[in-house]
Amino acid sequence: MTTAAKCGPQDMPPQGGYNPLVWERTKLKTFFTVPRTIAVFAISSIAGIIAYGASYKRIKREDIEMRSARFALLPMLMAERDRAFLKQCRINRDIERELMKDVPEWEVGTYFREPVYITKQGKFMEPHFFEFNAHGDYLEVMYRVLRRHFT
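Request: output the structure for the sequence above.
Response:
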């Protein structure tokens, strides 16, 4: 058998040999020494305290302004809610009157001439939640129940 001709000279170690292998531990370069770490901590703490103090005054001022606005708007919002509630009670009563018009001797607000609520004359009794929403869409009523109890 014949062997293939070699293309060039064989790789040999460099003249004088390879460098010796480093077996001992090499120390890492340390940037964060103890004094530098303490200095960075102190500077960042001072900067944080200054920033907190500056923003605390602004946040407190905005909080007082929002509380004042809420107190100013609260009576109007409660009046609007009460107005919408009474309007819906009126609509419910009109729906009951229209629905039961063919039933003889039916009076609106009673159940076969028995009053639904036994109250003092002229005193308004707030209806139960489901009674108030009796003529509403089922999904909308359930959404209101979930929103009322879980938010």
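The beta strands are 110-111, 114-115.
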